Amino acid sequence: MAEIEAVAWRDDALVLLDQTRLPGDEVHLACRSVDDVVDAVRRLVVRGAPALGAVGAYGVAVAMLQAGREGWTAGRLSAEVDRVRDARPTAVNLAWGVDRVRPFIAGGVSAVIAEATTLVAEDTAANRALSRRGADWIEAHCVRRPLRVLTHCNTGALATTGWGTAFGIIRELFDRGEIERVYADETRPLLQGARLTAWECARHGIPYVVQADGAAASTILRGLVDVAVIGADRIARNGDTANKIGSVGVALACHAAGIPFVVAAPSSTVDLSTATGADIEIELRDGAEVTAWSGVAYAPEGAQGFNPAFDVTPAAYISAVVTERAVVEPGGHVSVEALVKGETS
Known about the structure:
Blueprint: E1 7-10, E2 13-17, E3 28-31, H1 34-42, H2 49-70, H3 74-85, H4 92-101, H5 109-141, E4 147-151, H6 166-175, E5 179-185, H7 192-204, E6 208-211, H8 216-221, E7 227-230, E8 234-236, E9 241-244, H9 247-257, E10 261-264, E11 270-271, H10 288-291, E12 292-293, E13 296-297, E14 310-313, E15 320-322, E16 327-328, H11 338-341
Parallel strand pairs: 4-5, 4-7, 5-6, 7-10, 8-11, 10-15
Antiparallel strand pairs: 1-2, 2-3, 8-9, 9-14, 12-13, 15-16
């Protein structure tokens, strides 16, 4: 089965699998302007930290091609590249992808595209490596077999450049014959778990059920889950992690139940310039996402929606953080820097 390709560069355009249309329709969107890229990022046509890194890198090439067509000044080009960089504030990888290729602008569009393509290849390889590390750690810390795994939001190939991060660990465990069932939280309000994670589970033949976010704590405390595995959009220097809203509730339930809560993300998601989770800006999205679905309101007329897209899980409630370079158990003797540098002792 061909790997899902959420982000690609074809015919001088950034091509995205439109995740707002899944699972019903598989539609690809070609972005040929900065407005196209920014709109796709903000509408969640593409989402997930690693995928956003690739979008940031290729988005610079989109800006450069538009600059050539429209005769922009260098200052205008820089400002438009910043628009791509700042399209979503919580996920660090979008800015990281832009910053990775920005020094190559002087070499022309081909140089930027080449570096972006290198970034994509590196990320896919990193996902496979972190999946093996995470699966090894889980096998060493969970006695029951086969495993019942809970996950929140979507962290598969749709959220990355290939394979997946937290979902990549689930895929690795499934390939090892270790998965009994995946509990996929629906992930309100946009249902990335019900729409996307379930779609990927079905695609790979992984046994799963979809549950309401509000059921997650009960499922864990009833002893129906052996380990929870989620992704991260930013990892602070002290080990706090930001992820899709609802993640911290899963962590608290795992802590109360005494089962592992594992965070998996590429090393590019580690932001050593952010001291703690309190310093992470939490994106507030349109309240209508909470009070309506597909344009149909289900809350009383005039109801205001409060819609933080992310929450922060304190390091104290995280059993392990996994990147392609290391596994760190917050509170242990190995610092978060190891997640980037690969030092484990």
